[in-house]
């Protein structure tokens, strides 16, 4: 336990903060109470906590609605984890779909997203498709307000957006969703939008946050950097009326006359919360170091109901890079190359290597009840010189085939297995002691032979790699082939599969499950108001982004399905807070 500071106001004495996750969720004392305006060191209409995409959209929206806004950012800069993202945002029924006359009906959108996120509950005959009323309303609100958010950001000069077309031999297509082939997804393409620079060039997360943060700074929004919010202040009725902020100049209480909006990131950098709530091992995280679950603790103290606490946006990571970086520069979003397959500790393929990162990573947690282990916890991409050179520089492949200490190479498959097991011995203290099974070498040879046969035939009967559009199109769109190599284009029937060369060298590395960030926390309603344990809105408290319970649960609906809901509920929260009567 740590004893918090006391503020200068007589009734703003801070309570003891319990940092254990279970205590944060179940047994925290009430938040700070205050009644007198003389206790405040500063006042505003709306306080926004967090300066990533959700926070900047919330602040800009509230400011445009006429509210006075203060944005508090824990780090020394705006941008958050959003700035290092791909920068895309997945928006249903967006302006480009409408302009092209592509229908994206709400009823079908709800069926698709709910079936993907809640397959065991999904009932197409039920009024709410089998999910709770609030979940249904949340996903509906996302559909209703996503494009409005995009158009509003453009209208106020905060963010210019464009669709993300993919050139083809016959013109262009649009990036597919991550479960593009099921019947419920009647509009499987075109929901991805990206930031557009002033010169028309499509860009990524750095441009997204450059545009949003510049708009915040020129809009009269007061920005407090290096200023973590350490408490939520409530009145005697439980309404949120302000926050307590610490900075280099000390601790001060800021009154929020209309509301407080949390957009402060997940809890992936809080190892106590990760141990207490994440059901599976996590080796690395992309979120910035400040993503320590502040809203889990503070929201629970304010009476918030917590939800989706076991959830996360998942992707594999290079285990040795995760040991080097607290915040990973990049996750392994794609299995790079075509002459490549992935095996587990038994030398057996364990998933479709070309499916999306969230669903691939979930396969790492398949439990073997007989052996009492996760056989796929660590996986190993097996690739040849062709993939190493032709796809060089696509992370995690280095620019030069073996020019990274994490890359293991050998002239033969037997030698590769021996070198890999030697590397696993060195990593054993970080991986739960995972080593290759005695059957690995023989199984690897068999997997090699089967995969090469599948690649020649263009058909993968084990995992159906290349059967559906995402497999092939993400491979072609997201993996740059190097010019000037000796390797010709793939002549085989499936562009996502090519036989490995019959002679070495061969390469591999150690991959483990990681997260971009968690996506659990206080539950919100369709107006972005935080709900208490009885499902009632906590007056004056709102949330958006990875700090709240994601309505998507464990599904990643499509490219940009983290930022899309985050920005949309930031927009909804900004409107809701700005329109609330002053407290």
Task: Characterize the structure shown.
The chain has 583 residues and is an alpha+beta fold. It has helices at 21-26, 53-64, 95-99, 106-117, 133-155, 205-218, 271-277, 294-301, 319-324, 357-362, 385-390, 413-431, 440-457, 469-478, 563-579; strands at 32-33, 42-49, 69-72, 89-90, 161-163, 165-168, 171-174, 192-195, 222-224, 229-234, 240-247, 250-262, 306-307, 312-318, 340-343, 380-384, 408-410, 506-508, 511-518, 521-522, 529-531, 537-543. It folds into three domains: 21-82 and 229-314 and 519-547 and 567-579, 3-Layer(bba) Sandwich (FAD/NAD(P)-binding domain), CATH 3.50.50.60; 89-205, no CATH class; 315-515, Alpha-Beta Complex (Flavocytochrome C3, Chain A, domain 1), CATH 3.90.700. It is built from 15 helices and 22 strands. The strands form six sheets. Strands 1, 2, 3, 9, 10, 11, 12, 21 and 22 form a nine-stranded mixed beta sheet that branches. The two termini are 33 Å apart.
Topology readout:
Elements: H1 21-26, E1 32-33, E2 42-49, H2 53-64, E3 69-72, E4 89-90, H3 95-99, H4 106-117, H5 133-155, E5 161-163, E6 165-168, E7 171-174, E8 192-195, H6 205-218, E9 222-224, E10 229-234, E11 240-247, E12 250-262, H7 271-277, H8 294-301, E13 306-307, E14 312-318, H9 319-324, E15 340-343, H10 357-362, E16 380-384, H11 385-390, E17 408-410, H12 413-431, H13 440-457, H14 469-478, E18 506-508, E19 511-518, E20 521-522, E21 529-531, E22 537-543, H15 563-579
Parallel strand pairs: 1-10, 2-3, 2-12, 3-9, 12-22
Antiparallel strand pairs: 4-8, 5-8, 6-7, 10-11, 11-12, 13-20, 14-19, 15-16, 16-18, 17-18, 21-22
